[in-house]
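Re: that chain you flagged

S.,

Sorry for the slow reply, it's been a week of failed gels. I finally had a moment to sit down with the sequence you sent. For the record, here it is as I used it:
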Amino acid sequence: MIRVDLHTHTNHSHARDSVRQMFEAGQEKGLIVQGFSEHSPRPEGYDYPEEYREHLAATFDDYLAEVSALRDEQTPRGIRVLLGLEVDWFEDEVPCLRDMTTAHEYDYLIAGIHFLGRWGFDSAAADWAPLSFEERCALYARYYRTMKAMAETRLFNIVAHPDLIKIFSVEDFHRWLDAPGSMDLIGDALTAVRDAGMAMEISSAGLRKPCREVYPGPKILKLARNLGLPITFASDSHATEQVAWNFDTLARCAAAEGWKESLVFCRGTVTAMPFAD
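Prediction finished late last night. Pasting the structure tokens below so you have them in one place:
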């Protein structure tokens, strides 16, 4: 049973429910470690059609305070509440990201690649509809080159949803995986993740998205295992009913490839947590 969820969002960004409500949902699922990983504040120019930047900026200090207070409250009970951050990776903003990630004492940092250049590629299926197969393949390749560059900065502990790029074009993505050189490119990216001391997230969020597939899918899971990459588990929850959602499926996927434990990062300390199918 997986009793750790390191990817939880709150109503301080674009999620529905509060820190307290998301925590209580985790308790109902039997979590003994729950990590809050709100989105990082985003610079101007990196925009979504439905933007939550101003709300996040206005309430971000409240997020930090609420999670910290909950952590202090729950520690005597043996429940670990962790203060994390999902940092949007922008290849042209590395100095800004360095400042952001050191501004507070986070337990861990997740790198989320949602943007290629200034395009938030996971916001609308309509953006992908006019693209040819060749154009989509170029974006898949760019995504993994971006992942490698992100890992090489050594700023982060975890890479989030490591094949998010498939969200609106999963069939073409699988075709691309079978093309010569594609798995080598992914392998280069995941090797950089491993060599940076990071873990790869296995997330149930993809099962709720148009791709209807765990992040990452089977071929990338197998590759990651062969590379000796450690893992974390994530729901990427944005509402109480999504906390630790479909973790039985994640446990089966991970166990099938031979993983027996996931990692928990806490202020430089790494703990391995066993799980069973």
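What I noticed first: The radius of gyration is 18 Å.

Talk soon,
D.
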